[in-house]
Amino acid sequence: MSKERKVAIRFADKWFSLFIRARDKFCYTCGTRRNLECGHLFPRTFLGTRWHEAAAFAQCHNCNSLHESDTEPFYGKFINDNGLELFEYLQRLTRSPVLKTDHEIRYIGEKYKHRYEQLNRGNWNG
Ligand SMILES: [Zn+2]
C-alpha cells in the first residue's frame, strides 16, 4: 500500500470516527458515554462498509472489544432496531469487492470532517 493511500485511510478513519461519536454520544450496545470509539458492525478490512454510516455506531471500548469475539450483542441490537433486511444488505456490501481510489478515500475524510464540524456548530438537522 502506498504512503498516500495509508495517509488517506488514516484521514478518513479519523473524521468518520469523530463524526460517528458526535452523532451518537452514547455506546450503542450498553449506553455509557465513557471511552467511546467508532464501532464497526463488520471488520474494517471491508472497504464497502468501513465508512458506511448505517454500519457504524459509537461504542465504548469494552463493547467494541467484545464484538471481536462475540458479535451477538451488536448484531442482535442492530437487527432488532433496523431489521434483518438492512443487516443482510450491509453484509452483502462486505462481500462485494470495492475499489476506492486514494482520491475517493480522501474525499470521504473531507466529507466527514465537514459533517463533524456541522454537528459541533449545532447546525445539524438530520
Ligand atoms: Zn458499551
**Bound heterogens, unique:** zinc ion
Radius of gyration: 15 Å
Overall, the morphology is globular
Number of domains: 1
**Major sheet, described briefly?**
2 strands, antiparallel
SSE series: HEHEHHHH
Strand numbers in spatial order across the main sheet: 1-2
List the total number of helices: 6
Classify the beta-strand content into a percent band: 5-15%
> Approximately how much helix is present in the residues?
55-70%
Give the class from helix and strand content and strand pairing.
Answer: mainly alpha
The unreliable regions are none
What does this structure look like?
The chain has one domain. Helix content is 62%, strand content 8%. By secondary structure, it is mostly helical. It is built from six helices and two strands; from the N terminus they run αβαβαααα. The radius of gyration is 15 Å and the shape is globular. Zinc ion (ZN) binds next to β2 and α3.
Name the features:
2 strands; 126 residues; two-stranded antiparallel ribbon; binds zinc ion; mainly alpha; 6 helices
Task: Break the fold down into its secondary structure elements and pairings.
Blueprint: H1 3-24, E1 36-40, H2 47-50, E2 56-60, H3 61-69, H4 72-82, H5 84-95, H6 102-121
Provide a concise account of the structure shown.
The chain has 126 residues and is mostly helical.
